[in-house]
Q: What sequence folds into this?
């Protein structure tokens, strides 16, 4: 279980089995690092057959990023690669490129995040692929778009956090801009790619089965993901600035200090403000016109915080949290990641999937009729190469032409090593 308690993990899915909502969909995954692999892991959780194409000399970069488990698997790699098959292909080798091409021509979804022009050099750009495989959904992820001045620029999460404005909002008001603690831009781009792919797959039902290109950039994902901050900039012409843990539009909505340390109060409306005043027994604050409405409180946020502080120092954080929650005011602790999983488990969320001994966060969405499942641990480099090659060799020209009504996938063919096909029906 790699440190997780038995109570925190379940068996990798819902109690009832069965195929997921994307059963029968084949994904050729040429992406690396985070945004693309996160997207394809969600597709795999939904039942799609995801075939991860990796270079033979080391595979995905994240395989080599610490920390590592006892068997050498990177926890970073493990976080975004469950439920997939891995095949190693040297795209500069003619035979391997032919296999990669055949896979792409067979796939419902092709996803890549190479520099613009790289896939074209292999004859696997979107134009070439859609000519050969018109039903394919082709997703390309870039840093700054695939055309124009940004096409040649390398795109990394940290860089885009800075160039895209997120760091200007993050950190203390009177200090340096900070990077967000996880690669949130990559996560946003991965989720936007997922949404685009699902929309394009659905569109095949109404457009005669045609695929299309889904183009996602980290920069645009961030600009859209900053929602209210982006809107404020566009509509007022003024950029929001760092406010530490305070909110620019809602108050009180920040970190406060209790007698034993910090905790959070997240007030969403005027009724909750009145309840805070009742809980801390400060009727004068409830009656103070400077704080009567949210607009008033935002305008007077500093003095409001100064007046609240002495009251909140009188009790420990856990006690304030209990009292405020009882009054239906959002409040809570600032947890570590380990504490957060424990809290989610106590709340009944079943936050962890254990997939063949590898613990990870459960898929964040649940479906009542076609459940998502964790079926296969993240693959070792190239561990499914023989199986995928055998499957591709069985795809005749007639099968490729009639694939739209076919349900065959690599999981339905026997493994060349002699293992029965039933063992590989994991999706």
A:
């Amino acid at each position: 279980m790699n440190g997780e308690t038995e109570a925190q993990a379940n068996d990798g899915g819902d109690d009832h089995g069965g195929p997921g909502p994307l059963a029968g969909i084949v994904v050729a995954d040429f992406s690396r690092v985070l945004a693309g692999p996160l997207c394809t892991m969600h597709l795999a959780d939904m039942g799609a057959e995801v075939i991860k194409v990796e270079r033979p000399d080391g595979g995905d970069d994240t395989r080599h990023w610490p920390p590592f488990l006892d068997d050498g698997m990177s926890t970073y790699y493990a976080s975004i690669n469950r439920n997939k098959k891995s095949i190693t292909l040297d795209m500069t080798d003619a035979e391997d490129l032919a296999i990669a091409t055949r896979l792409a021509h067979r796939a419902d979804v092709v996803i890549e995040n190479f520099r613009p022009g790289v896939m074209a050099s292999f004859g696997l750009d979107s134009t070439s692929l859609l000519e050969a495989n018109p039903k394919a959904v082709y997703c390309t992820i870039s840093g700054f778009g695939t055309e124009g001045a940004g096409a040649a620029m390398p795109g990394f999460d940290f860089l885009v956090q800075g160039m895209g404005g997120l760091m200007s909002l993050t950190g203390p008001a009177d200090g340096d801009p900070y990077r967000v603690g996880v690669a949130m831009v990559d996560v946003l781009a991965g989720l936007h790619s997922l949404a685009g792919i699902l929309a394009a797959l659905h569109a095949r039902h109404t457009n005669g089965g045609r695929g299309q290109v889904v183009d996602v950039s980290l920069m645009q994902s961030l600009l859209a993901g900053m929602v209210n901050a982006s809107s404020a900039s566009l509509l007022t012409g003024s950029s929001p600035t760092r406010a530490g843990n305070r909110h620019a539009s809602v108050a009180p909505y920040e970190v406060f200090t209790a007698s034993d340390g910090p905790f959070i109060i997240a007030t969403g409306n005027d009724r909750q403000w009145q309840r805070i005043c009742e809980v801390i027994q400060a009727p004068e604050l409830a009656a103070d016109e400077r704080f009567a409405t949210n607009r008033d409180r935002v305008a007077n946020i500093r003095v409001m915080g100064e007046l609240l502080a002495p009251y909140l120092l009188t009790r420990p954080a856990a006690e304030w949290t209990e009292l405020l929650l009882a009054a239906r005011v959002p409040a809570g602790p600032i947890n570590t990641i380990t504490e957060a999983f424990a809290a989610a488990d106590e709340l009944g969320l079943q936050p962890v999937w254990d997939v063949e001994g590898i613990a990870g966060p459960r898929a964040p969405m649940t479906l009542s009729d076609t459940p998502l499942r964790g079926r296969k641990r993240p693959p070792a480099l190239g561990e499914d190469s023989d199986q995928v090659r055998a499957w591709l060799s069985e795809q005749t020209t007639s099968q490729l032409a009639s694939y739209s009504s076919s349900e065959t996938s690599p999981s339905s063919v026997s493994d060349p090593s002699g293992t029965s096909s039933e063992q590989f029906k994991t999706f």
Summary: The chain has two domains: 6-228+364-424, 253-341.
